[in-house]
């Protein structure tokens, strides 16, 4: 069913916890009147910073049946909002747009047997919500999660990924790509290098193809652009409602 376009308005939420996952990564849990949403959709968070109110979009990490909103975010040196978010403590107030919005959802994917979830950094967020739904396992025969990070400490949310692997061992594979350190448990280098070198397909035993593969790309623009170029060589193109393809994207930074 196509995702409807809705108008959102800010509502007040209360911070339940703000967990630092690594040097620059955080998991923010917020209590609010969370309206129904589809896994992969985003909300906008808004805070007063100095004399201004600053807002930015973030995907919901929590499952659609979880009433507590969870946001996975990273700080950047000059990020006004990200550093304000990092300073939040339990009990603090924050404005959150409701309802959630966006088309980066399972409903918008082509009908293919294999799904590749490719992310860099906090682009992992929407996939964490999807992995906790029944729909993804009903819709696809095989699912491959590929997460690119700078250092091993940023391979976070294993408390969600590992149980999903254990529950769906015949369907799910999870692969990390680490650029700045050795990665004995995965690939050392960029996500795009894992594909272009042939390592990714050899490791998974699957082939990225226009016939079998749906691909979601979420993260920084360099990864998304380079992946789209590599996939274009395989006759894979953007999926549209009126023109079937293979690829849907969500650019984070």
Verbal overview:
With 253 residues, the protein is an alpha/beta fold. The protein has two domains: 9-98, Translation factors (Elongation Factor Tu (Ef-tu), domain 3); 106-251, Nucleotide-binding domain of ferredoxin-NADP reductase (FNR) module (Rossmann fold). The chain is built from seven helices and twelve strands. The strands form two sheets. It has a six-stranded antiparallel β-sheet, covered by helices on one side. β3 and β4 form a beta hairpin. The longest helix has 12 residues, at 221-232. The relative contact order is 0.15. The mean pLDDT is 95.
| Major beta sheet summary | 6 strands, antiparallel
| Termini gap | 29 Å
Average per-residue pLDDT, rounded, comes to 95
Q: Write down the domain tally.
A: 2
Summarize it.
With 253 residues, the chain is an alpha/beta fold. The chain has helices spanning 80-86, 125-131, 135-139, 158-167, 191-196, 199-204, 221-232; strands at 9-20, 25-31, 42-49, 52-59, 69-74, 93-98, 114-120, 142-149, 172-178, 187-188, 213-219, 247-251.
Tags for this model:
single chain, 253 residues, alpha/beta, Elongation Factor Tu (Ef-tu), domain 3, Rossmann fold, 2 domains, six-stranded antiparallel β-sheet, six-stranded parallel β-sheet, 7 helices, globular
Explain the layout of strands and helices.
Blueprint: E1 9-20, E2 25-31, E3 42-49, E4 52-59, E5 69-74, H1 80-86, E6 93-98, E7 114-120, H2 125-131, H3 135-139, E8 142-149, H4 158-167, E9 172-178, E10 187-188, H5 191-196, H6 199-204, E11 213-219, H7 221-232, E12 247-251
Parallel strand pairs: 7-8, 7-11, 8-9, 9-10, 11-12
Antiparallel strand pairs: 1-2, 1-6, 2-5, 3-4, 3-6
């Amino acid at each position: 069913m196509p995702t409807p376009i809705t108008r959102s308005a800010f509502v007040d939420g209360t911070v339940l916890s703000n967990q630092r996952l690594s040097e620059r990564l955080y998991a923010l849990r917020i209590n609010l009147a969370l309206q129904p949403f589809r896994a992969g959709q985003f909300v906008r968070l808004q805070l007063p910073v100095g004399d201004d109110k600053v807002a930015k979009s973030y995907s919901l990490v929590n499952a659609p049946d979880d009433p507590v909103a969870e946001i996975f975010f990273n700080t950047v040196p000059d990020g006004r909002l990200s550093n304000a978010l990092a300073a939040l403590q339990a009990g603090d107030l924050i404005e959150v747009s409701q309802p959630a919005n966006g088309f980066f959802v399972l409903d918008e994917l082509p009908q293919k047997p294999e799904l590749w979830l490719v992310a860099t950094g906090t682009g992992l967020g929407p996939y964490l919500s999807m992995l906790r739904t029944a729909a993804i396992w009903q819709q696809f025969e095989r699912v491959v999660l590929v997460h690119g990070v700078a250092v091993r400490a940023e391979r976070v949310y294993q408390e969600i990924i590992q149980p999903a692997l254990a529950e769906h061992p015949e369907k799910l594979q999870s692969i990390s790509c680490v650029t700045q350190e050795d990665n004995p448990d995965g690939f050392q280098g960029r996500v795009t290098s894992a594909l272009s070198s042939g390592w990714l397909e050899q490791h998974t035993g699957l082939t990225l193809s226009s016939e079998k593969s749906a691909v979601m790309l979420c993260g920084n623009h360099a990864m998304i652009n380079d992946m789209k170029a590599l996939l274009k060589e395989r006759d894979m193109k953007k999926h549209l409602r009126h023109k079937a393809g293979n690829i849907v994207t969500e650019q984070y930074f």
